[in-house]
Amino acid sequence: MKRVITYGTYDLLHYGHINLLRRAKALGDYLIVALSSDEFNWNEKHKKTYFTYEQRKQLLESIRYVDLVIPEESWQQKRSDIHEYHIDTFVMGDDWKGKFDFLKEEGAEVVYLPRTPEISSSKMKHDLYDAASIEESKTNHDDLNTDPGNV
Ligand code: C2G
Predict the structure, then answer these.
(1) How far apart are the C-alpha atoms of 48 and 111, rounded to whole Å?
(2) Quick count: other Cβ atoms within 10 Å of Cβ 129?
(3) What are 33-84's pLDDT values in tens digits?
(4) Which residue of the set 2, 25, 47, 138 is catalytic?
(5) What percentage of the chain has pLDDT greater than the value 70?
(6) For the segment 91-109, what is each residue's pLDDT rounded down to a tens digit?
(7) Which helix (H) or strand (E) covers residue 89, if one does?
(8) Which ligand 1 atom is the nearest neighbour of the CA of 91?
(9) Does residue 151 register a pLDDT over 70?
(10) Nearest residue to 77 (alpha-carbon basis) of 106, 114, 113
(11) Which numbered atom of ligand 1 lies nearest the CA of 10?
(12) Most buried among 104, 107, 121, 138, by the most CB within 10 A?
């Protein structure tokens, strides 16, 4: 059985994440996702996630490509994870290209897959914020036009 591992925050789960997980699973038979803990996200990535670790874990566990979700609690755990989980292949999106080549020293194949370019959790947040702002300004404008105090 070929075992694959990948790491990430996976907040506001979207089709770019699914594209990565589908291709990662296709590289083996068993896919482990090391999911960044809330503390790791905040302390190391300065990311405040919308969903908690438990909520993000529940979402990932419902995906057909994912066989096991474990916590990612440090940058350093990758080396030991390779041995603890008997990993054959380490996979990340190519925004991380070259960053984890050292894992070859632990006997793992290292694969960087092309990201899905047009989508990201931060883009989703920005787009939703912009849409909400436009909606609010429209509502305020309409109120000004219908407020009897303005006649
Ligand atoms: N991804 C992708 N396409 C996107 C967005 C993300 O292929 N449009 C991939 C990323 O390259 C990564 C995975 O989906 O492999 C998870 O992305 P993030 O949740 O943003 O993870 P990140 O913050 O990059 O954390 O130790 C490694 C880190 O935990 C990775």
Answers:
(1) 28
(2) 10
(3) 999 999 999 999 998 999 999 999 999 999 999 999 999 999 999 999 999 9
(4) 47
(5) 97
(6) 999 999 999 999 999 999 9
(7) strand 89-93
(8) 15
(9) no
(10) 106
(11) 19
(12) 121
The Cα–Cα gap between 136 and 124 comes to 18
Distance 86 CA to ligand 1 centre (A): 22
What's the DSSP call for residue 66?
A: -
Quick one: tokens of 16?
Answer: 């770019």
Residue 34 phi, psi dihedral angles, 5° rounding: -90, 105
37 lines ligand 1 (CB under 6 A): no
47 is catalytic: yes
| Pocket of ligand 1 contains residue 100 by CB under 6 Å | no
Between CA 82 and CA 96 the distance in angstroms is 18
CB neighbourhood size of 52 (10 A): 12
Q: What is the sign of the dihedral through the CA atoms of 122, 128, 131 and 135?
A: negative
- 45 annotated active-site: yes
Catalytic pick from 2, 45, 104, 123? 45
